[in-house]
Description:
Largest sheet: 9 strands, antiparallel
Helix content: under 10%
Shape: elongated
Radius of gyration: 25 Å
Low-confidence stretches: none
Mean pLDDT: 92
Order of helices and strands: EEEEEEHEEEEEEEEHEEEEEEEEEE
Structural class: mainly beta
Amino acid sequence: MDLLVEKLDGSRYYLSQYKVLITDFEESAPSVTRNSKQLDQRNGNIDFGGWHTDKTINITGYYRADDIDEEETLREKLYALLSDPDGYYITQLKTTPGMAMERPGETYGGYYDKLSNYPSHKRFLVYTEAPEMELVGNVNGTLLYKLTAEFKTMKLPYGETPQADIDVVSNVPYRGTVPCNQLEQGFSIRLTATGPASSLSFKIDDTEMTYSGPVASGDVFVFSGFSYTQNGLSIVSKTNKAYFVLQPDKPNRITCNVLGTVRILGFQNLYA
């Protein structure tokens, strides 16, 4: 296996560039926090709901160095790469043997050269406090070190697909496994009207956003859950201030009383 590290400026690095072979990639479930209160002389608690806080990813890998000086250089580069306080995205690169099944001993040598990596369908925005390197021993004259790191998600406690702007005709093609809340994830909906109307009603499944003002052909509306604009001007006072949540295993069907085109800005699938 390998690990892709993508910095927030877009630069990309593979741990294999630093001679690291990833042997273990373990992803936890999102941790849950609940808000509850106990009252005197009342049995039990009053529960006010819960939410996901973060997710933990643990990796293990090994690297070799010809001598102490090379190991020190590799260690410094790995520290610089992984100990970034601004955070970065990590993606697991899974390994599939690039050869057919064979009998034991039928071929020999070059096993790792025959392996190929393919990326996971999700990535994580994370940081790590302190990656650790541990000397395992001397193997055939080279030093073998073990790398371990525990990553914590920084914003959303989920795996994410890269953000994209998509055109939608009827149903939002959401494939995530957890709800994607517009106020938390931050996607926006852009509606470009191709016909006039006296008001606007825009729905995704049962959630409705209404606007009480007139609509003209060519008007561009952008709804972000906390900001609502018509041709760049705020229309908050004329809306019901609704926000949308894309649900897993539901149609997420769009209905609107105004003819027009719909584009979702910053669309992502989110995975627990």
